[in-house]
Amino acid sequence: MASGGTVTGAQASPGVTYQKVDDAYFAQRGLTRYAGVASLWALGVGAVISGHFSGWNFGFATGGWGGMLVAGIIIAIMYLGLTFSIAEMSAALPHTGAAYSFARTAMGPWGGFFTGLCENVEYVITPAVVVTFITAYVNSIFGLDPAYSPVIWVVFYAIFLGLNVFGLELSFKVTMVVTLISLAVLVFFWASAIPHMDFSRWALNIGVDAEGKATELADGGGSLFPFGFSGVLATLPFAVWLFLAIEQLPLAAEESIDPKRDMPKGIVLGMFTLIVSAFMIVLLNPSVANVGSFKLSTSLEPLLDGFRAIYGDSGVVLLGIVALTGLIASFHTILYAQGRQIYSLSRAGYFPRGLSVTHKTYRTPHVAMIVGSLTGLAVMLAIWFALGAEQGGATIGSVLLNMAVSGAMFSYIAQAVSFILLRKNSPHIERPYKSPLGNVGAVLTIIIAVVTLGYQVQDPNFTKGVLWVLVWFAIMTVYFAVVGRHKLVLSPEEEFALSKGAAEYKSH
């Protein structure tokens, strides 16, 4: 545990105090290296893939099919700029802290803290969003009463928290299996959907009524852009769901065998896999006969709707279970990321240090994962009971999605700014991989993220959730100002930042 004394002099950062710790502190917080390129690819794709099963389709109500496609392209450009940037930074700064680590080196302790806080919101809330979609599928498959949804939330959290706690190797093997199955399910759907396509009749079946809202066109043949260019921009927050969480990969840096070589490969391969999958699902899911964009615009299980239209209701249980795999893949992998994100901030002293203790046998950050999961569940239950079970069930997914996306957008902006500052102020840092888009990619990321946030504010469910995000920010800012900044620890991220990149990463 922490021993007495502080770090002073040339090593100290203005406004913060580093307390010296002995070797036992890091021994209690050890991780294990296991992941190669394939495991990292599966972790990145698996984290995102649920967004191709549910969530993205709400964008049809704001942009129509053409609006969804163009919004998806714009968001893909943002994510390419972001992923190339973090591929460069993750190879140069191979620490578990990821976004916090990048911002800490570029913008100091307060910059690292706020970036880490934004990312913390994303990774605590995103599993909650995914489990609401899982529950919708389960309720639909088995005809369960939605009033019992919280029970399903708890069951899924317990199962996949256990899989993440009991060993890194087990966690990565589960990730690989469910990710490959999820992609196989999508490919099977694409092959099944192509013979049943009627693009003009079904994908273009959205019009606009006198109040400017989406209405169904009985014969299809509507406009590609029924809501115009403003509809494209309003659809950006929903298109984010096609790629959200690919940026979690650098959180696995200290569990990667060779992060400087493998991390950029895993991120880039994962991103291009997702671009192909996103295009195929946006094209084919609404084009299937008797499905259509209008129906999908309010569906919690769009892929299952597509399977039903093709194969009928007779195999709905089997098809539903198959369609669940993508949601399970993301739920499992984002719980992994949640634990590492909380662990890194705790190990460095930004969060209470007890959260970063790892399991004595399995060397996984079990405390961080348990506390993060309980926090996500608490948020879900608070919204559920505050709105009432009936209304809560209808809106909780949208409220949580807004919370997750807002946290992500702020963290993307901070990471892009960090990339630009690191290139400008720290050109001496070794960069085994360099972004082919350079500062241009980072600037595009910032611009698109800001515009997305601007249109997200217009969602009536935005304030219901984001106000609580602001409350969380206020509480943690007070904690860091009063307590945390006086108890920082020279973790690998902090050592690297204080040495201005001169210190190579070393395992404690």
Automatic annotation (TrEMBL):
<feature type="transmembrane region" description="Helical">
    <location>
        <begin position="148"/>
        <end position="167"/>
    </location>
</feature>
<feature type="transmembrane region" description="Helical">
    <location>
        <begin position="434"/>
        <end position="453"/>
    </location>
</feature>
<feature type="transmembrane region" description="Helical">
    <location>
        <begin position="174"/>
        <end position="194"/>
    </location>
</feature>
<feature type="transmembrane region" description="Helical">
    <location>
        <begin position="399"/>
        <end position="422"/>
    </location>
</feature>
<feature type="transmembrane region" description="Helical">
    <location>
        <begin position="34"/>
        <end position="53"/>
    </location>
</feature>
<dbReference type="InterPro" id="IPR002293">
    <property type="entry name" value="AA/rel_permease1"/>
</dbReference>
<feature type="transmembrane region" description="Helical">
    <location>
        <begin position="465"/>
        <end position="483"/>
    </location>
</feature>
<feature type="transmembrane region" description="Helical">
    <location>
        <begin position="65"/>
        <end position="87"/>
    </location>
</feature>
<feature type="transmembrane region" description="Helical">
    <location>
        <begin position="309"/>
        <end position="337"/>
    </location>
</feature>
<feature type="transmembrane region" description="Helical">
    <location>
        <begin position="367"/>
        <end position="387"/>
    </location>
</feature>
<feature type="transmembrane region" description="Helical">
    <location>
        <begin position="224"/>
        <end position="246"/>
    </location>
</feature>
<keyword id="KW-1133">Transmembrane helix</keyword>
<keyword id="KW-0472">Membrane</keyword>
<protein>
    <submittedName>
        <fullName>Amino acid permease</fullName>
    </submittedName>
</protein>
<keyword id="KW-1003">Cell membrane</keyword>
<feature type="transmembrane region" description="Helical">
    <location>
        <begin position="267"/>
        <end position="289"/>
    </location>
</feature>
<dbReference type="InterPro" id="IPR050367">
    <property type="entry name" value="APC_superfamily"/>
</dbReference>
<keyword id="KW-0812">Transmembrane</keyword>
<dbReference type="Pfam" id="PF13520">
    <property type="entry name" value="AA_permease_2"/>
</dbReference>
